Amino acid sequence: MDSFIGHLAPAFNLIATDRKLVSLSSLRGEKVVLLFFPAAFSSTCDSEMCYLRDNFAEYKKLDAKIFGISTDTFWTLAKYKEDQKIPFELLSDFNKIASRAYNSLYEEFILGMLGVTKRSSFVLDRQGVIRHQEILESANILPNFEEIRRTLQEMA
Between the CA atoms of 93, 9, 146 and 68, what dihedral angle is there, to the nearest 10 degrees? Predict the structure, then answer.
């Protein structure tokens, strides 16, 4: 599917850094921001996650739950969350199920790495319908945070 906008978000069950399972279906009734990112401890991902960390209060005011999703292990993501003082949950898509479902997977990334998450953003309304989508082909580009905020503001 090229555009997910207006469609129900693909379901997932992913492991969080606290080793608990997070199910997308359990988030119904919440405004959700899903941010897929290639790799913890990489420069552009640091910029993205630290921007969200530094602006977290603004997203909280918009009543949004933020989740970072990567194919990194939950152990790596737990260390990354701790080191970067990230105030929202990071989810491991180690098996690449969610990344594939959201069309957010590089089959081949840099240096021959296979199956790495593409930098992508999705905003889901309280019914689980996707209202914003951005899937970036270049891992060096940050998501359009202004568009994410605008979409959240427009949602009840």
Answer: -20
Confidence (pTM): 0.90
CA distances from 140 to 37, 42, 43, 69, 120 (A): 11, 10, 9, 17, 12
CB 86 within 8 A of CB 23: no
E strand spans, 83-139? 89-92, 105-108, 114-117, 120-124, 130-135
**50-80 pLDDT tens trace:** 788 899 999 999 999 999 999 999 999 999 9
Angstrom distance (rounded) from CA 28 to CA 24: 7
Question: Rounded CA gap, 35 and 51, in Å?
Answer: 12
Adjacent-strand bridge partners of 1:
none
18 burial class (0-12, 13-18, 19+ CB within 10 angstroms)? exposed
Tell me the per-residue pLDDT of 99-118, one tens digit each, with 9 for 90 and over.
Answer: 999 999 877 665 565 677 88
Q: Rounded to an integer, what distance in angstroms lies between the CA atom of residue 120 and that of residue 117?
A: 8
Calpha distance 24→12 (Å, rounded) = 6
The single-letter DSSP state of residue 9 is P
